[in-house]
Specification:
The chain has 234 residues and is an all-alpha fold. It has seven helices and no strands.
Length: 234
């Protein structure tokens, strides 16, 4: 286990922290919603609170709003934390440090995909289904499955990060100190430079040299866009 705390970029900590905060709140209120309106597969008899479905939807909405920014950061500035073109090959080195780091990259990527599934299935639901007792809709079942997958993904994400970096790595996400190069005063300049590169046509190189990360990033972003657009035509 590492004894020194690694440094995490400030923007990563902010985006990761906000996403995690809203997501955990959504997960907890999702179970409360299930316990209130359903409970067919077991319940713990939480207090009946009819408004919990709307509260869950609000936290889900907050997660959906912040998630695209986190995705863009993860697939660009944080891409080394995700699966790589040679990740499958490195999985053959069982027990070696690179094997654990590769598993960690897989679990990080899996968490992003799981959250995409949870957000998309949630947006496909109608907020009136549960209050009306309509519990057999396909998208409701999909969202229940997404809840289980998301909880599993978070558990794996935490376990693998603890295995790779120990407690110092986990605590590093809660450290608010930042280096000069990470100062929020520089973010506007970084954003301007990025937008200038897009205007110069850098985006045209994304598709011919599409990697697994490029494909996953676009699949997630398209899914998020579809989650907003499809309900408009219901």
């Amino acid at each position: 286990m590492k004894s020194t705390q690694p440094y995490q970029p400030l923007l990563l900590r902010i985006l990761h922290g906000l996403t995690a905060l809203f997501l955990i709140a959504a997960i907890l209120t999702a179970y409360w919603t299930y316990d209130t309106y359903d409970g067919r597969w077991g319940r713990i008899s939480l207090p009946t609170f009819r408004e919990i479905e709307g509260i869950h939807g609000t936290f889900g909405l907050y997660t959906l709003l912040i998630f695209p920014a986190f995705v863009i950061y993860a697939f660009h500035r944080g891409q080394k934390r995700l699966i790589q073109p040679d990740s499958c090959t490195k999985l053959t080195q069982v027990g070696k440090p690179i094997w654990w780091y590769t598993l960690n990259r897989f679990t990080n990527t899996f968490a992003l995909l799981a959250l995409t599934f949870a957000l998309f299935s949630g947006k496909m639901m109608d907020s009136g289904w549960l209050p009306r007792g309509e519990l057999n809709h396909g998208w409701y079942y999909a969202h229940l499955i997404a809840w289980v997958v998301m909880v599993s993904a978070i558990a794996l994400h935490l376990l693998m990060n603890a295995r790779v970096g120990g407690v110092p790595l986990l605590l590093s996400m809660l450290n608010w100190r930042f280096r000069d190069k990470d100062s929020p005063r520089l973010w506007a300049n970084h954003l301007t430079q990025w937008w200038s590169s897009v205007q110069r046509g850098s985006w045209s190189n994304w598709f011919p040299s599409a990697s697994i990360l490029t494909i996953l990033e676009w699949a997630i972003l398209v899914s998020i866009a579809a989650a907003w657009i499809i309900p408009l035509f219901k």
